Amino acid sequence: MKSLVLAEKPSVAKEIARVLGCHQKHKSYIEGPDYVVTWALGHLVTLAEPEDYDPKFKTWNLEDLPLLPSKMKLKLIRETTPQFKAIAQLVQRSDLGQLIIATDAGREGELVARWIMEMTRWRKPFKRLWISSQTDKAIREGFAQLKPGQAYDNLYRSAVCRAEADWLVGLNITRALTCKHQAQLAAGRVQTPTLAALMERERQIKSFQSKDYWMLRAQLGSFQAVWRSAAQPDGRLFDREAAEALLAQLNQARSAKVAQLKTTEKSEPHPLAYDLTELQRDANRRFGFSAKQTSNVLQRLYEQHKLVTYPRTDSRYLSSDMAATLPARLEALNVSPYAALVKPLLRKPLPLSKRIIDDSKVSDHHAIIPTDERPQLHTLSADERKLYDLIVKRFITLFYSPFRFNETAAIIDIGGEPFHAKGRITVDAGWKAVTGQETTAETDDDEEGSAGDEPTSLQSLPPLQAGGELKDFRLQLHKQATKPPARYTEAGLLTVMEKQHLGTPATRADIIEKLLQTDTIERKMNTLQPTGKGAQLIELVVPELRSSELTAAWEQELERIAKGNGDAGAFMTRIREQTSVIVRQVKESDVEYKPHNLTHSRCPECGTPLQEIKSKRGKRLVCSSRECSYSRAAEPALSGKRCPQCHKKMEIHSGKAGKYAQCRPCNVVEMLNDAGGGRASKRQQSHLAKQFSDNVQLSSSLGDALKAALNKNED
User: Fold this and answer.
1) What residues does the Toprim domain cover (predicted)?
2) Cα separation of 302 and 8, whole Å?
3) What is the pLDDT of residue 368?
4) Rg (Cα) of the chain, in Å, rounded?
5) Are 413 and 257 in contact (CB under 8 A)?
6) How high is the pLDDT of residue 304?
């Protein structure tokens, strides 16, 4: 009997088939002596739509809500139905004795396979391939150690609960808000509290009142010191007169004295290996990658190039059974530009501490690290190379010693007042020899700033002695101002989502993209901020759904279900109850929605004001009435024609007589008589003449006529 292998994507299926010796290629599967390998196309099956329960639900009506089917139905995704039918036919084959689930080793991958099994009525035994990389070695070892399919039943229950909860909450709240306010308003159990976090930061920024303050600094030859006191430990003086009085007083001092001097040897251990969220944060900080961009590039490194392990992990540690594989992974990296960093590690046993290997902190998947495939760096795109470099260097740092340095703290007495200075001298670069001296601090600049009141923390200090005098000094006041919290970058928002348990590493990027696509938030430079629509939406949504506490509790319960400690039935009962409460509150709300993007233009079909929206093809004007489908470009397209007066490109318009080009400032209009937008250009004319003269022997009369026509056009 053969085994049917179900992969998630055709590309993965082809690699598995090759490793398993399957060479008979068919349209929807690949067959070999022992295996038949087929594939999904992502999801082939999804939850049924409201109209699948009752046709009347195709029309959105507030009175029909909430929609709470007692049993959720499944349906085929129309675009991928042919592939599903092909799998269904394979299922009927009598020579296939078991199914091997080889979809992505995670919650979503389990759901893909199980729903296909349910819709095809698979009743034979099944097993699970659970691997963390796509290398040939990992695939072979995975098939040699297949897991019982039932071992992942709890993971499947958790995935079903997540999908059904999102359907019930997201669909009902979105329909309720849209029907109530006659506008396209989308909300959900994760995206709404994420939007609320952005709105709260915006509120802090707008309510912030900047205050001037002064810092007193002393320039002591080659280094600086900052005044501080017990009453003002941060050194900020908000009273200008008091600051100037202190400066005048201390200007009378004739010398400065080293009152205290303390040197401490400190060390900084290597950063932890990457999980998906931390990698997304780092890529955003360093390269400006969006979270979604990082996910996409990482998936290619995992599937196509087989250079990294499973991407959608929330662990930053390795499991003990991986210890024996680490030297081979380092050996694979013994190529330029990593050879010089790796060779010292290969000469001795690797130092494996709890900071690297900790089974108690590894759930379904370990941290993201390189595989034992030797990289062909020239085959990677620029983005793939950047991301791979981050992962490789973070992996190499795991085996380097801590960064050690001597930190010297000095207190300089000037006129009886203390001035503080810090300096650092590197003793052993340790892991920073791999990454350079750039910071790896996993924090974001999103608290109130003090405009740099500690500019001298990393300066070099000259040799100092306690009690020694420094006669060469100059005092100066620096005026600064308090700053509001910064707007979130994607790195900062990912940190907030992680701390508040909003979504999972695998879903956070999609949540951010969904908020962007629904025009509730927007990117400005490298920051995210709510739009006018988002600001209103958060006021329309019930307070319960804005809170991160509710969705965090849901995520924690889903995790408990996945581990076999939660009750899926009780969870879904609570979801239905909460959905009913949320819909009722929307119906009873008296808050009004006023579209922020209404224009002064009116729809030519129904007279309703037009809204300006962003689309993939640029800005568009759409009718604000849900019953009307009118839409047009907000800005006219530009033609290749230039105005004969101002020489700017002319706009293309359509009128009763056809298309025409117009220069609005000069009010010059020219008809466009063909798809090319007018007569042939001089280059086209020249090319045409050359083509005829080179390839065709013209009669004298025809040649004369053509020449006359071309000359006329040039005139």
Assistant:
1) 2-133
2) 14
3) 98
4) 33
5) yes
6) 94
Q: Which of 189, 251, 620, 209 has its CA nearest to residue 414?
A: 251
CA angle (156 as vertex; 303, 119 as ends), nearest 5: 90
- My answer on whether 31 and 152 are in the same domain is yes
pLDDT of residue 711: 53
Nearest to residue 88, comparing CAs of 195, 168, 6? 6
Domain boundaries, position 525? 188-208+487-540
Give the integer Cα–Cα distance in Å for 641 and 663.
10
Contact predicate 128/101, CB 8 Å: yes
User: Is residue 587 included in any domain, yes or no?
Assistant: no
Q: CA 633, CA 48: separation in Å to the nearest integer?
A: 34
Whole-angstrom CA distances from 356 to 89, 98, 203, 352, 359 are: 47, 38, 41, 6, 10
- Say if CB 53 and CB 66 are below 8 A apart: no
Look at residue 649 in the predicted model and tell me its pLDDT. Answer: 82
For residue 152, give the DSSP letter: G
Which residue, chain included where needed, has tokens 């209404």?
A: 598
| Nearest 10 degrees: Cα torsion 128, 130, 133, 138 | -80
Q: How many CB atoms lie within 10 A of CB 150?
A: 12
Q: Please tell me whether residues 649 and 613 are part of one structural domain.
A: yes
Q: Are residues 321 and 338 in the same domain?
A: yes
Judgement on whether residues 492 and 465 belong to the same structural domain of the protein? no
Which helix (H) or strand (E) segment is 491 a member of? helix 490-499
Instruction: Give yes or no for a contact between 22 and 30, defined as CB atoms under 8 angstroms apart.
Output: yes
The pair of three-digit structure tokens given for residue 354, joined into one six-digit string: 């709890």
Weakly modelled stretches of the chain, pLDDT under 70? 437-457, 616-618, 635-637, 654-656, 673-715
Distance of CA 56 to the CA centre of its chain: 38
Cα 418 to chain centroid distance, Å, stands at 47
Burial of 650 by CB count in 10 Å (0-12 exposed, 13-18 middle, 19+ buried)? buried
Is the domain of 251 the same as that of 325? no
- Describe the crossing of helices 291-303 and 382-397 by its angle, rounded to 10 degrees: 80
d(CA 110, CA 155): 7
Which one, of 98, 126, 123, lies nearest residue 35 by Cα? Answer: 98
d(CA 564, CA 615): 44
Catalytic residue, candidates 29, 35, 302, 310: 310
End-to-end CA separation in angstroms for the chain: 82
What is the per-residue pLDDT for 682?
A: 52
How far apart (Å, rounded) are the C-alpha atoms in residues 88 and 712?
Answer: 69
Query: Which whole-number Å values give the CA distances from 35 to 133, 145, 283, 462, 602, in the listed order?
Result: 20, 16, 40, 72, 63
What's the per-residue H, E or C state across 536-567? HHHHHCCHHHHCHHHHHHHHHHHHHHHCCCCC
CA distance 563 to 561: 5
How far apart CA 337 and CA 335 sit, in angstroms, is 6
Return the half-sphere exposure (C-beta side, CA atoms, 13 A cut-off) of residue 240.
6
pLDDT given at position 441: 47
Do residues 307 and 368 share a domain? yes
- Indicate whether 554 belongs to any domain: no
Taking a C-beta distance cutoff of 8 angstroms, is the pair 197, 206 a contact?
no
**Residue carrying structure tokens 């991928």:** 80
| pLDDT tens per residue across span 352-362 | 999 999 999 99
How many domains does the chain fold into? 6
What is the residue whose two structure tokens read 């919290």?
485
- Three-state DSSP class for 474? strand
Within a domain: 591? no
Sign of dihedral through CA atoms 126, 130, 131, 134?
positive
pLDDT number for residue 700: 44
